Records
---
Amino acid sequence: MERTDFGRIVAFTDGVMAVAITLLVLNLEVPNVPGNELNDALVDLIPSLIAYLLAFALVGRFWVIHHRLFETLRAFDSRLMTLNLAFLTLIVLVPFSTALFDKFTDEPLAAAVLGATLGLAALTHWLAVVYTLRRGLVHDHHRSANEPLASPVGLGFTLLFLLSVPVAFLSPTAASLMWAATILLHYPLGRMGARES
Amino acid sequence: MERTDFGRIVAFTDGVMAVAITLLVLNLEVPNVPGNELNDALVDLIPSLIAYLLAFALVGRFWVIHHRLFETLRAFDSRLMTLNLAFLTLIVLVPFSTALFDKFTDEPLAAAVLGATLGLAALTHWLAVVYTLRRGLVHDHHRSANEPLASPVGLGFTLLFLLSVPVAFLSPTAASLMWAATILLHYPLGRMGARES
Amino acid sequence: MERTDFGRIVAFTDGVMAVAITLLVLNLEVPNVPGNELNDALVDLIPSLIAYLLAFALVGRFWVIHHRLFETLRAFDSRLMTLNLAFLTLIVLVPFSTALFDKFTDEPLAAAVLGATLGLAALTHWLAVVYTLRRGLVHDHHRSANEPLASPVGLGFTLLFLLSVPVAFLSPTAASLMWAATILLHYPLGRMGARES
Amino acid sequence: MERTDFGRIVAFTDGVMAVAITLLVLNLEVPNVPGNELNDALVDLIPSLIAYLLAFALVGRFWVIHHRLFETLRAFDSRLMTLNLAFLTLIVLVPFSTALFDKFTDEPLAAAVLGATLGLAALTHWLAVVYTLRRGLVHDHHRSANEPLASPVGLGFTLLFLLSVPVAFLSPTAASLMWAATILLHYPLGRMGARES
């Protein structure tokens, strides 16, 4: 039951992620105040804007790593399709979890929900990497590149997200700094890769 | 009037299904409570989360079976395009029917509406399978795979969904278990297929 | 400045139309009533459901005719891109105009707004057909198929939509029957074409 | 780390821009008035309709210039992916900034926010043009076409948008005329290009 028509699976995945990332903007509500209070109302919106930017960068990063995995595949099976749908189920929850965290910034539980959403999405993606290597769905010349990702070390980002769940109960701010750190750690690595090419 | 440019038809279909599946998350509303009641409010959201997960899995399953049918086609005609639009009309109703069922979980009528939406979508898809076989739109080497789906036995899932409509009037919970059963029946079959490959 | 990469133009167009057609469902609001009034509330929703089905069929029909035009093109230029964006601007207004008509079903002005939206979209599409023939953007072997569409006779559907604007001021119901007629006239023609193939 | 599979990057970008441009219509709200006040309520909606048309044309223009840049690329790297995500982050903000400006048309701050959103999006795009030329990601036969865009002169539109931010504090109306001017300046140029082909 292997498949070579990645086209539609990838198009559907990209469509879902494109809608999910765009729905993040619905969290930014136009203030309902008189004109002379607009200045203050916009200042009050800054945390929501930061939450939007952070969530956009996180979903964007998930798209990039999903894109990198699927580039290396030579085949597809039903169980990978199920893992992919589970990944999308969690990505589509990100706009909800972000809005929850944005409204209850000081509540440990809200930060824990967002951390868990991100952590489970990362874990599902890691399971997909491991599964595609085990089942031989990866092109041979990409195996050496993907194998480190499937190692326990490759769980790094996933653990950082999952660790943010208990951290959230100590300090929601510390948890959000951990999520931001995954962006800062990821993008310089990307840049280094680009320099070497 | 046969067509070979499936590309756009499939891209439009995938786009509509990607938006519809993502709109399911709008049913999860951020609670409007003080911070110290967030815990209880999130517990109250769990049924909505389960409805979201179930509806996401159901629309995802419809996408998978649609994908499998279209893979086997060698041509397209206007009536299939009409059947496809009718299928999409019903899929786009799923976020509404899910939100209705989530709000009125104990009302037989709400469960019946969701059951009817799912049943009509499954029936439209079954009609498309039958039609493509009758009109010779299926590649010859896929006929043997598709013919069982077009038989009355292939109506199995459709009947399960349609049967959930009268069942809903006896017990909305029983109806929702029937929908969940289609997921559980589907995914193990997919896994078996993958093992054999 | 001709282009052959229709791919992205078509993908963007399909994306916009897929989102617009799916937004139509937002017009169906889950009733905010006690459970024992759900039956009556759902009966009250039937006109909204009919408006949804009609608007879905109309946008679906616009997608089909857009798809047929773009299949026949061998090149693209900036002015066609502008016409295409103008067409999309009007299609994206359809969910708004439909919601307006659904809320003010008996008001001539609301029916006139929806009729004008549909009529201008049809007119823009007709202008695109004429323009692509005049500028030689159509494949030679498709010219004979497209030329009748560019004739004043090809304006038929456009005139029916535009005529619905003054008719709306006499009877909003008559205007909505005219829109429905374009669906009924279109689909049998499509079916006949399929029979001949 | 160069990539040739532009397909997904472009599909994801088109998906995000298609959703963002369609969300603009959510700014047009169906008036909540009795039927006999519909006429006045629709007249009051005209500024919102103009804001919708202007924003649709602006996002459409950004899509066109993005499309033109990506047509000329022969490779892709991580930093360009980051620039592209930053561009999308700003495009997705346009529906919010437009709704803000539409609600607070006379407030300099609201016009400044929309001007800054458009200006930063244009600047990010200009940086992508410069970066792709510097890093040799552009096909050789497209270099001569792209180099003028990367010159300070190519910053023209970007400067017009950024200049609208201080202008907004003198007159929000003047700022909005500057945005409209970019449409009027752009489309005739496109038309001339088409005439020459």
---
Amino acid sequence: METKRPTTPAAEEILGGYFPVLDHGFVALVDYMGGDEDIERAARVSYGYGTRKTSQTRGLIRYLRRHHHTTPSEMVDLKFHCAMPMFVARQWIRHRTSSVNEYSGRYSLMPLLFYKPDLEHFGLQSSDNQQGRAPEHAPAALYEKTVAHWEKVRAEASRGYRWMVEEDVARELARIDLPLSTYTQWYWKINLHNLFHFLTLRADPHAQWEIQEFARVMAGMLKRVAPLSYEAWIDYNVCAHSMSRAEMAALRRLLEADVDGIRPREGVADLDPKGLKELGLSGRELRELVDKLQSADVPDYELDLSTMRRAEDVAAELEEAVPGSVE
Amino acid sequence: METKRPTTPAAEEILGGYFPVLDHGFVALVDYMGGDEDIERAARVSYGYGTRKTSQTRGLIRYLRRHHHTTPSEMVDLKFHCAMPMFVARQWIRHRTSSVNEYSGRYSLMPLLFYKPDLEHFGLQSSDNQQGRAPEHAPAALYEKTVAHWEKVRAEASRGYRWMVEEDVARELARIDLPLSTYTQWYWKINLHNLFHFLTLRADPHAQWEIQEFARVMAGMLKRVAPLSYEAWIDYNVCAHSMSRAEMAALRRLLEADVDGIRPREGVADLDPKGLKELGLSGRELRELVDKLQSADVPDYELDLSTMRRAEDVAAELEEAVPGSVE
Amino acid sequence: METKRPTTPAAEEILGGYFPVLDHGFVALVDYMGGDEDIERAARVSYGYGTRKTSQTRGLIRYLRRHHHTTPSEMVDLKFHCAMPMFVARQWIRHRTSSVNEYSGRYSLMPLLFYKPDLEHFGLQSSDNQQGRAPEHAPAALYEKTVAHWEKVRAEASRGYRWMVEEDVARELARIDLPLSTYTQWYWKINLHNLFHFLTLRADPHAQWEIQEFARVMAGMLKRVAPLSYEAWIDYNVCAHSMSRAEMAALRRLLEADVDGIRPREGVADLDPKGLKELGLSGRELRELVDKLQSADVPDYELDLSTMRRAEDVAAELEEAVPGSVE
Amino acid sequence: METKRPTTPAAEEILGGYFPVLDHGFVALVDYMGGDEDIERAARVSYGYGTRKTSQTRGLIRYLRRHHHTTPSEMVDLKFHCAMPMFVARQWIRHRTSSVNEYSGRYSLMPLLFYKPDLEHFGLQSSDNQQGRAPEHAPAALYEKTVAHWEKVRAEASRGYRWMVEEDVARELARIDLPLSTYTQWYWKINLHNLFHFLTLRADPHAQWEIQEFARVMAGMLKRVAPLSYEAWIDYNVCAHSMSRAEMAALRRLLEADVDGIRPREGVADLDPKGLKELGLSGRELRELVDKLQSADVPDYELDLSTMRRAEDVAAELEEAVPGSVE
């Protein structure tokens, strides 16, 4: 269709395409409003006409992000259709500044699709992170036993759900013993400012791996809607680190900077844990500083277009998983 | 403790007391800020001293609510500690303008407590409401079979969770096959304006019965924090109805009002479905109007203080339900 | 440009056109996302393909609005560029659930344009509404004296601003004595749910007349973006009234309704102020009920396309009003 | 009064006291809910009893802030009564996640009090910051001429306002030519998370100096409500800096860190502007990095209790400034 609205060809290319995530989930970009130039336009409160060079737009967008001038990025919106396990949905929904319409288990029959982790991502409790999993996977034998358990619980939960639906038990009750691994789906709309916040937290290695998978696909989508903003986000958020008062004191002790560049201060002594403690850094914070100074890869959330599926095909699969096949 | 802050004796009486909801849930009011007089103070942007008569405060509060001047009621906050089944938590969290800290299944072990509906509230799918349950309960035999199913699924899910925890599987994975009936808990803070919105929707008969039970207890708590606001909410929201353009046209056709009162228009003809349709009322809207004109009970969400429990006792029960008993 | 996004021809027709409001203000719709069908799509969490009849979409949208299912209407966004006097901007900004980028008086030079009410809307303090103006205008002689006062203050404030800017006084200080009638401008993005809330309050006769003027133009714009939602809003919000518990008791006393229609109860006595008081209605509420039962016009916020201006022309006017002509 | 709610003695000491800001403004803490321990309680979703050592609470609060776990800090609320010039109010209100009730110029008569900057803070346009003022004050002669201008405009605006009020012109119109320097006032409630965000932006040297003055007093108040959170905010926000991807690359090139401490890499070469550019740092970003590495004072927003005034005295002053003296 013809439109006078701002349009982004790279976003149009994937609009309405469904990208698989995990075993039965997906993310589709179903609509978007605005792009990098609209952020500039809002920041300048400018009239709709006239043209600017991309290099000027890039400079402004990087300046805005570096200095936390986030309101112009609220002027861009992305709308997604997503399917995810309920335990992922429960983490996701904590991001309040967004709009959601979820598939209703009170009104509709649930597709009986469950998330089964694969061996590669089946880890033991992490020893150094109290809420995550170890980076390496658990023994295959343990995994096999767990899969057997999952299959048993899910078969039993599915059987019960089907039977209750046949007996005409209220759907809002029939579903209460479905497991948290059951897939749900929703429409989700969020502006770019809040999407960046979501992605910064949820594409982070400390987030549960399953929600990271969704975040990575959405990051690839926003890269197509607003590439300059995406690049600024990578540089000033994803790959940036906050240095605390004590850490800044350590850096100032060790380094000097001026218009000619930055260099170690002459004759400066090393800062050992005792010296760092005097500056206010705890032992735990020293370990965190060491981590920050490890070299780190720059992530690239480019979408793999070969995985993109048609809405009809995805819909057919979910409908087949609904008890009684045809609703 | 001594405080110069506004204090409400009726709220202090229940502060920190745990009120049971459903079979293993609870609501406790753990803190509050302000009351009816603070709403008036904010509406008047007045200095902190001076006294007003209760009748003046009541008149203002009723005026504000009747005319949708809701911002002063944002000046009162209530903070709750609650435990509820996860399918209830998922409905609850849709109310975004509030603050939440939920018990983390990634970090902590889940108490293995599940919600089991009793026969009285175990209904078939409603025939006239596409998303609810019938008012009368289902046959006892169907209920018994369902209970057997629940017990089987829950025993299996619990066994698997306990075993995975012993095998040191990451908690964030061990919990993914717990059923939606599993209890979770959270701290929840909300201001009075948004609490009224929540309660209007969730104490309503169209909400799932289980969340209504929570809403009714919270309504009883706010009645103690801000009794005049509570009364105005009952009169102008809970027991009020919106009359559409077409319904107003019908009322104007049938009734006349002036300073001397309100009465049927002389010689007015009845409005039959055809006449109502001409005014814009669909058949479905006529049925809704008939419902509105049925006489309705005025609810009273007074708390039953005899059910109030001590924090220690409630905590002990939940801790006992955690695998391995002592964390 | 070509787009796969949902497009509304009636909205495209006015996109980027500037509609004058008051003497120097304007509203332009600069972007939109979604329309009536996207509300349905979100409510059904449906896949992107397939077609529905308009009559079905209309029925669903009216049902959703009548029953306060407002979340699907959050899925539509409108973005405006507006200019308004600062006293209007201060009322407008109270609507928090929106995104704003305002022209900065710290960074940029202010156009010296001031709002001058015309005689027709220059009223005395209302005698029955403590915060509004009387419906009829004030004497012309009083108006003339006021105009003279305005001109004097504005000339002096403008002279001072120009002089300070020439003296290179910081702009953030030079502007502090500009009057509240000075025009500012902003980009403003809001979703349909919150826009309806804004318009319901600000197109209402109790709002200050000047902000009503803006609300009416925006209502005309949304009528083009989502006509079925607009119609439902008129029927279930703008022309609807809430009937309190006591008012419902009065209606139930006087009327009966069933599937055959609605009619006065046989042999029912009139309700005089005493009887109404027994039902809980105060004297003030009786007057409010009388008002509600007066017949009322149905507003039509259709835009007058003949007033639409080009961005370039509007921009030129504002730029001319900036001190030093060329920035 | 007696309360079972958490109470903070240092906050009680100033509760209801009015702290002057600028020439006629003020901030008073009129209520608060919770403190540091309630943040811990919410983070742990713990029952109300039991005691923790302050050192444990401090460690947790610092950990939460360092790692951006901000939701527990939403559990603390502060309520203020403030008076400020309207141009300050317009910056302040941009912080949306808060509750506001402002004195109404439609309903009430405005006190005719205007903000007059003193010479010390009367600066020219900054040469290196496009939206601020130069650090040193403008020439005294320019200031004197400006004061004369202000006095003239304000006298004329006041005369007009008084006259219109006497003529019974609608208040909502009489006030439209009051200058932006006119004082308004409001009740403002915000949770600690959002207050930190507000203060980080508004106590920052890039904010307009006048709003910084308000932010500093509010920072002193929150230091009394939640001292451990305040300390963590100073260390991890106020005195912290974000290091971008390119800056981190520079730091990694120059420094190495391990459990034994942090030190310059052996034999490392200085990074000159060309080298920094290769790492992705623009010339402007190098200047920003130099600024970050300058040593900086740690601010202490301790309140000066000797300035605290009684509500009655402040109220009397404002009432005297209302036209017609007694409302």
